[in-house]
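Priority: medium. Attachment 1 of 2:
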C-alpha cells in the first residue's frame, strides 16, 4: 500500500561516507517504518465509517525490511490478513458471505464502491503526514551511523 524504497550506487556511498550503505539503508528503514505505520493507521481511522472497518485499521503493519533483487531496500506498510467480518452487502438486497482481505477493504475505502460507498482517500494523506518525521528519523540514523 505504502512504502519506502532506497536506491543507490553502493560504491560511491560507501567511499564518500565511510559506512556500509546496506547496513545504513536497512537500519534507516527499520527506524522510520513505525512512523509511516502510525500515520497510515491514523488516516485510515479517519476514513472508517463503521466498526467493521476497525479491523482494517488494526491490520496495518510494516513488513520486514528486505533487499530486492535489483538492490533496493524496501519496507511496505499496509493492511495484512483477512477481516473476521464475513457478511457484506453486494448491492441491492442481496447479501454475500465471504472472507475479504483487509487490503481489499483499504481499496474500497480509498476508491469507493460504485453505487454503494463513496471514496474516502487516506493513503496520500498518510504518506504526506509521515514524510517530515520519516525523513528526520532517516537523518538521525545517518548521523548516528556516521558518528555525527
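Attachment 2 of 2:
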Amino acid at each position: 500500500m505504502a512504502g519506502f524504497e532506497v536506491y543507490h550506487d553502493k560504491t560511491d556511498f560507501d567511499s564518500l561516507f565511510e559506512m556500509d550503505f546496506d547496513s545504513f539503508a536497512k537500519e534507516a528503514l527499520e527506524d522510520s517504518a513505525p512512523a509511516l505505520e502510525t500515520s497510515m493507521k491514523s488516516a485510515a481511522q479517519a476514513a472508517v465509517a463503521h466498526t467493521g472497518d476497525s479491523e482494517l485499521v488494526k491490520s496495518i503493519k510494516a513488513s520486514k525490511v528486505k533487499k530486492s533483487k535489483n538492490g533496493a531496500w524496501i519496507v511496505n506498510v499496509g493492511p495484512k490478513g483477512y477481516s473476521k467480518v464475513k457478511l457484506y452487502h453486494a448491492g441491492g438486497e442481496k447479501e454475500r458471505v465471504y472472507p475479504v482481505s483487509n487490503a481489499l477493504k483499504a481499496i474500497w475505502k480509498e476508491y469507493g464502491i460504485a453505487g454503494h460507498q463513496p471514496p474516502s482517500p487516506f493513503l496520500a494523506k498518510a504518506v504526506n503526514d509521515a514524510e517530515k518525521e520519516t525523513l528526520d528519523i532517516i537523518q538521525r540514523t545517518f548521523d548516528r551511523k556516521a558518528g555525527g
